[in-house]
Design a protein that fits this description.
477 residues; Growth Hormone, Chain: A; disordered C terminus; mainly alpha
């Protein structure tokens, strides 16, 4: 049984889960650095190259909820192994791809494997660590991987692409994935016996997965074809119609994929909503500040990755060593409010970066603030979301939370990138200098992202997690 595993086994299992999660998180950002090389080698156009990222994003977002539910019904350990195996095999397919369609198809299936493994990994951590102080420490490690892995991917992508070629950004997954699979098979305890309720709402699963994939497709394509274009509006309309049909099915079916009662869990709903706003701000920080450094300040990809290093170090110290103590001392709600406040301040600081910005004066302070905020926020946000969730629903709840974070990040980034592009285009039409116009567009986007983070802070302040400072946060059973 997961909760009854000895202490040493549980911490080794956590390291294995973190290794798998890091591989999946890295793959989102490590590809961005290699896109120019892939474009030249396989003959992608300026518009089609985006599908290397979009194919992964769409399937990853679409299968998170289903992956979490499958883990609840048939075993988290089993589906973690299935997800890691699929992700690793598709990484090999990506590495040997010799055509555009082969690479895009492999990336889409890689996203399915990543979604399944990621959705159940969090549930496995929560089921392995059910005592409050240990759970907080474990979530600190897992939180650093989830929040800090993206910028590590930029550094690693720059090194691998520069030293070898783009194939190695996928080949690096093979030893990690194989080792994760073998170690998980040997170390992670078997799941407890499942209840007789093992029926899967196939129709509901197909509808909600299609709805999420359509929504993500509309989001990632909105910048290219226009947010008011017939294609975007019809796709979003189709996603909304499918979501409505899904809710109707779930309200009347005997064994629903997603019992609608789960949304009456106040803490899960509030924490997930705050997570939507938080992830929108964090995606803006990572992608838009990287664009500012590359396009305006003319940093090379490796320098951009290194620029994020201070934020990662701050995030690591807080997530791994201090976050659990902060939660234990000040409580979940106060810790989350403090962390999101730091994120808000960091984004506001970025909203005034100059055209000729100096790293230590204009960028480093925001990196430190955002690393501080992310390092404090992730742990209490997940603890709040999962606090009142029954163990048998932990996979579904983590799928709901993860889907909310992903959708918030994708939608927020699309809105903010479109806003920045609109401001830049308007200023260029008025005769402004390109660097100045780009910087002004980033100013507006960062200011709006700070508003998102501030709204998330206000939401977090309404949480009612019954965990007093200096007491152990234990999930309801």
């Amino acid at each position: 049984m997961l909760a009854n595993a000895d202490n040493r086994t549980r911490w080794i299992a956590l390291a294995i889960l973190c290794m798998g999660a890091l591989m999946i998180v890295l793959d989102v950002s490590i590809v961005n650095v290699a896109l120019p090389s892939i474009k030249t080698d396989l003959g992608f156009s300026d518009s089609s190259i985006a599908w290397i990222v979009n194919a992964y994003t769409i399937t990853f977002g679409g299968f998170l909820l289903l992956g979490g539910k499958l883990g609840d019904l048939f075993g988290e350990r089993r589906f973690f192994l299935i997800g890691i195996a699929l992700f690793t095999f598709m990484s090999l397919a990506c590495a040997v791809a010799n055509s555009q369609w082969m690479l895009i198809a492999a990336r889409a299936l890689q996203g399915v494997g990543g979604a399944v493994a990621d959705a159940v990994a969090l549930a496995l951590v929560l089921n392995l660590f059910q005592e409050g102080s240990e759970r907080a420490k474990a979530m600190g490690f897992f939180g650093f991987v989830a929040a800090g892995g993206g910028s590590i991917g930029v550094i690693l992508g720059g090194l691998l692409t520069g030293a070898f070629n783009w194939h190695w950004i996928f080949l690096i997954n093979l030893p990690i994935g194989i080792a994760t699979f073998i170690l998980a098979l040997l170390v992670i305890p078997h799941d407890p016996p499942r209840a007789a309720r093992t029926k899967l709402d196939i129709f509901g699963a197909l509808i909600v997965t299609s709805a999420i994939m359509l929504a993500v497709y509309a989001i990632v394509g909105g910048n290219d074809v226009g947010w008011t274009s017939p294609e975007t509006l019809l796709t979003l309309g189709g996603a909304i119609a499918l979501f409505a049909a899904f809710l109707l099915i779930e309200a009347y079916i005997k064994v629903p994929l997603v019992p609608l009662s789960i949304f009456r869990n106040r803490n899960l709903s509030i924490a997930s909503s705050a997570g939507v706003l938080w992830s929108a701000g964090m995606f803006a920080w990572f992608f838009l500040s990287a664009l500012y450094m590359q396009v305006v300040l003319q940093y090379d990809p490796l320098a951009v990755g290194l620029a994020f290093l201070p934020g990662n170090l701050v995030m690591a110290v807080l997530s791994i060593w201090l976050s659990a103590k902060i939660v234990g001392r000040f409580g979940v709600r106060n810790s989350l409010v403090a962390g999101l406040s730091c994120v808000t301040l960091g984004l506001l600081y970025l909203a005034r970066v100059p055209v000729d910005g100096n790293y230590w004066i204009d960028i480093f302070p925001s990196m430190a603030l955002l690393g501080l905020g992310a390092g404090i926020s992730f742990n209490p946000m997940i603890l709040a979301a999962m606090h009142d969730v029954k163990p048998e629903d932990s996979g579904l709840a983590s799928g709901v939370a993860n889907t909310a974070f992903m959708m918030g990040g994708a939608l927020g980034l699309a809105i903010l990138a479109s806003t920045a592009a609109y401001v830049t285009t308007s200023l260029l039409a008025g005769g402004a200098d390109q660097a100045a116009a780009l910087t002004s567009g980033y100013h507006v986007a960062f200011f709006i992202s700070a508003i998102f983070a501030a709204l998330g802070t206000l939401l977090a302040a309404t949480l009612r997690v019954k965990i007093a400072p200096d007491s152990a946060p234990v999930a309801a059973h």
